[in-house]
Amino acid sequence: MSQDKVLQVTLLGATGSIGSSTLDVISRHPDRYQIYAITANNSVEEMNALCERWQPRYAVMNDACSASELSDNLQSSNILTTVLSGEAGLLRVVEDTEVDCVVAAIVGAAGLVPTLAAATAGKRVLLANKEALVMSGKLFMDTATENNAILMPVDSEHNAIFQCMPDSLTEHHSSVKIANQQARSGIERILLTASGGPFRTWSADRLHDVTPEQAVNHPNWDMGKKISVDSATLMNKGLELIEAYWLFDMDIANIDVVIHPQSVIHSMVTYNDGSVVAQLGNPDMRTPIAHALAWPERIASGVEPLNIFDVAKLDFEKPDLERFPCLRLCYEAIKMGGSATTVLNAANEVAVAAFLDKKIGFNDIAVLIEQTLNKANITKDVSSLEGILKADAEARTITNKCISAIH
Ligand code: NAD
Ligand code: MG
Predict the structure, then answer these.
(1) Ligand 1 pocket, 192 CB below 6 A?
(2) 60 - beta bridge partners?
(3) Residue 362 to residues 176, 242, 341: CA-CA distances in angstroms?
(4) Mean per-residue pLDDT of the chain
(5) What atom in ligand 1 is closest to the CA of residue 130?
(6) Residue 386 to residues 91, 120, 136, 139, 308, Cα–Cα distance (Å)
(7) Is the C-beta atom of 143 inside 6 A of ligand 1?
(8) pLDDT tens, 326-341?
(9) Which residue's alpha carbon is nearest to atom 16 within ligand 1?
(10) Cα of 270 from ligand 1 centre, angstroms
(11) C-alpha span between 92 and 58 (Å, rounded)
(12) Residue range 45-80, pLDDT digits in tens
């Protein structure tokens, strides 16, 4: 199947790490993709430069003030991009009928509403914003299935798992429809790889004194600040465990987290005949982005193929849940069910922001999440967006109170 029209792409979170990798891939294929809309939080200057370069139909800023500043700048340089703001603006550029593909690359809970709207509108959704799925799990997957959205994982591990699945599953044009068909395909386990982060070998005592500067300095991947801290606490792997659980409808007992410091194998799938299928590549997000954009075709991403002779060796270890309790809390939250993963995600976002602001220590992040999970009212009913947003807001209030108690 070859693509016969230029696809219109809305890029949520255009100024971020995933945003700029996506633009890099798209710049290589002007015959296949056109940028319809870009969005960002409040970085007017960066958005101005992106509008000049890409001339999108729309640009959306989070707040009205940044939007009017951007609009004035664009008018004075005769750029015809229409500037919108807030949730209404995001919904407009996701739902427009001209839009074929939505890249969900806003960080954190702020991405939930537009990402869910993209699934509701039946778009091709490139999911980088794992927090949206962690918060809304079943609602998100049901919405994508009901509306025939094509849900493509961008997270490198989940994209690798998708690539390791048999064609007979992925030909359904959506990872959504992989669910429930695995047994027939002989799939037994998912091996979710993790680099282990910058503190993989550090003692618990030494972790106590970790600074934000150290935590955002990841050994293998160049990423936004929040996901870099999540990688250092192993919360990122916990969020990815929850992400894999929902995306591939896999029992949590059949997903193993494997610490693999070289970040060369991006994940694996094991089969009942003894086969272990892996996806390998240089650690560069342009590979999974290009795969998710073009699938079932392949397009150039700008990433050099892995030189297998440069890979001296591949190491594998079990994760240490004592030193990295965030991963343990993710297992526990999945078992609790209902709104527990929504609460966990909210508590983590608040705690990571406080850590980056130097209000709490590195090890306090897990303590605060555990306290919030214990204090929050974990509801069973997470079938509505309103219910999920309420659980998220309540959890944030609890975590903030717990932070005040630390001081
Ligand atoms: P980033 O911090 O570099 O960029 C975040 C983007 O979201 C920016 O464009 C920012 O303007 C926008 N944004 C932030 N807050 C917002 C708000 N309140 N409203 C609207 N827009 C807002 O983050 P990133 O590293 O690009 O990560 C983006 C998402 O992709 C995260 O969910 C992350 O977990 C996921 N992801 C990232 C990587 C990676 O390599 N960076 C890998 C896998 C998954
Ligand atoms: Mg990942």
Answers:
(1) no
(2) 39, 84
(3) 36, 22, 21
(4) 94
(5) 32
(6) 16, 15, 11, 11, 49
(7) no
(8) 999 999 999 999 999 9
(9) 41
(10) 31
(11) 9
(12) 999 999 999 999 999 999 999 999 999 999 999 999
